[in-house]
# Entry
Amino acid sequence: MGTKAAPTARPFSVTSEVGALRTVLLHRPGDELRRLTPRNNDQLLFDAIPWVERAQQEHDIFAGVLRERGVEVLLLADLLTETIAVSGAARIQGISGAVDARRLGHALADELAAYLRTVPAPDLAQLLMAGMTFDELPFGPDHTSLVVRMHHGHDFVIDPLPNLLFTRDSSFWVGPRVAITSLALPARARETSLTDLIYAFHPRFLGVRRAYESHTAPIEGGDVLLLAKGVVAVGVGERTTPAGAEALARSLFEDDLAHTVLAVPIAQTRATMHLDTVCTMVDTDAMVMYPNLQDSLCAFTIRKEVDGTVQMLGPDPFLPAAAKAMGIGELRVIDTGLDGVAAEREQWDDGNNTLALAPGVVVAYERNEMTNARLADAGIEVLAIPGSELGSGRGGPRCLSCPLSRDEV
# Structure
């Protein structure tokens, strides 16, 4: 699908998790997933080696469901290619982010960067996403570099980015502004540099202002839930630090994008890497939540007062604190059932990680039958998609998507 802006392009703005979704950023998995092997999949944050063709089919079904519901789908690879094609500065910045002189040595880094400056935009975009091995270097056999001589041919000169398909993490929108995140783990650090290029140089995003600059402190989009207009919950755990949550809160307050931020401690484990792995909004007043945490989840409330001062309260139980901040009597909770083993299995398989397309309409993985049945019983329309391969990197439909535009609710 083309990604060029139409004259009627909707302005970008997101103020909730559930307002009717109008425009979304996805990344169709590609050759970067083919770089995964039993030797490196743990380091690259995958629990299994995905069947790439099936992952692509599953992603196409996901994108198709969104388009059928009237959502404009922008693909990251298309945007990156178009950005490099129209901006020399984007090309230079992308190459600079990918070629690490500290690891390659200045001689090899300079030679590789000079070569990449000549590569056509589609091929360069592919290299920046899928990486390059020493065997794939375009230089002749007479090249003299200790770095080349001491590395195996299958080692990476440019690391691949297999987690790019989880577009939620490297950026998120609060109101009309985009926040560029700082990803915590080395395997994902460079993803934000590509997202940053697109937002900075692609014609579709000209004039867009930033809500939060990366490198301030670690924060990832999967930890950020827009509970209601002006109310933001931030998970603090494996990926987002207390400093990141506080820096985001103060930034949002300064820009009048939020009045309350709830910092929610979560376990620093693979199963609960982000807040959206344990709960997501499915309606304006309803949330699907992993039942094991329903009573134990707490929140520190960071609030901007009328006089501009910042007050911090808590910790208090999360659900009452969230409802109070949202100005509602109670937050409805749909849990994944009373069977503890099944609930744990479905939480691991991203049963709580849903993407709302409108109030009361969500996309979920079909494999989580119990969670989906509970949602349906609660009056939530569930659009089930396959995810056996997409989920091998631990991420559901919300992880796979970065909403750029939603209607107000």
Notes: The longest helix spans residues 52-68.
